[in-house]
Amino acid sequence: MKSTQFSELCFLGLASLFGVTASFQPQIPSVASFTAASNDPPFVLSSSTQIIVDSAFQNTGSPVSLIGYANTFREDLVSLTGFTELPGVQAGSLQDAPSAAPMIFLTLGATGHNYYSGVATEEGYDFAIRSASYVIKGSGALGAWWGTRTLLQQVALTTGSAAGISFAAGSGSDTPGWEVRGFMLDAARHWFEPSFLADLCIYASFFKLQTFHLHASDNIWDQNFIAGPNWRDLYSAFRFRPSPNSPIAGLVPAAQQNETYTKDDFTAVQATCAAHGVTIIPEIDTPGHSLPITKWKGPELGLPDTPDLLNLSHPETIPTIKAIWDEVLPWFAAPEVSIGADEYDPALGDVYIGFVNELAGYISQKSGKAIRVWGTNEPGSGAVSIDKNVTVQHWDFPGDSIPVRLLEQGYRVINSEQQFLYLDGKTSDNGQFLVELDQGLMWAGAPDGGGWAPNIFTRHDAGNNTAPQNPLLRGALMAIWNDWGNNATTPLEIYYQLARSLAVFAEKTWAGSGVRDTQLSQDQFDGIYETLNAAAPGQNLNRAVVSPSNNTLFAYPSVPQPLKTSYDSVGPPYTLRFTVKPLSATQISVPLFDGSSMLVPFDGGVLFAGRDSKLHVQGLAFEDTSTRIRYPLRSTPTGKAYVLPADVETTVEIHATRTYTYALIGGERYWWTTEVDVWGEYMKAANMSFAAPARFIRAEGFAGELGGVELVLGA
Question: Does the predicted model carry a pTM greater than 0.85?
Answer without folding.
Answer: yes
